[in-house]
Amino acid sequence: MIGQSGIRLKGRIDRVDVKPDRRGVRMSDYKTGTTPRNLGDVILNGGAEVQRALYAITIRQLIPEASTIIARLVYLDTMGPPAGLDGDILERAEETTLRFIDVAVEGLRNGIAYAGPDAFAGYNDLRIALPAALDRYQRRKQEGFDAAQQRLVPLWAEP
Predict the structure, then answer these.
(1) 48 near 36, Cβ under 8 Å?
(2) Burial 48-84 (b: 16+ CB within 10 A, else e)
């Protein structure tokens, strides 16, 4: 259970290494895709990359004595270093993620399901559920979407 909203997370982390004294934890998620460009600059990527922050939130709850946490993505297509977050940057990513999860859950509890900034993007597999006349639908609904999403817009500007 995370955040003020108490939403329940369920899932698996590919690999968790814990120091014998439980004060240090390193989580690794293995990726088979191509390493994204500028990955070193990515923290939350506008809400598209919350996996490492969610892992750290989970570890802080399950292993509260851990004072050092590293959450990383390991891309198997390259010999480059893993994309890790730790320290203050990871803590800020966790705080930001929790804040926006609470906003989204509050919206859902009030009957509002926020469409993300890529809801109409061509690569979004869920577009199949949208109307066939997508351009007209988007123009007609965009003002309402923008008004409803004002509390989430700052997340989409996160690096």
Answers:
(1) no
(2) ebbbbbbbbbbbeeeeeebeebbbbbbbeeeeeebbb
Tokens of 1: 């259970």
- For residue 90, the tally of other CB atoms under 10 A from its CB is 20
Domain residue limits, the chain: 15-156
Report field, pTM of the whole predicted structure over 0.70: yes
Q: What are phi and psi of 127, to 5 degrees?
A: -60, -25
The average pLDDT across 83-103 equals 94
What per-residue confidence (pLDDT) applies to 117?
Answer: 73
Greatest mean pLDDT range, 23-32, 33-42, 71-80: 23-32
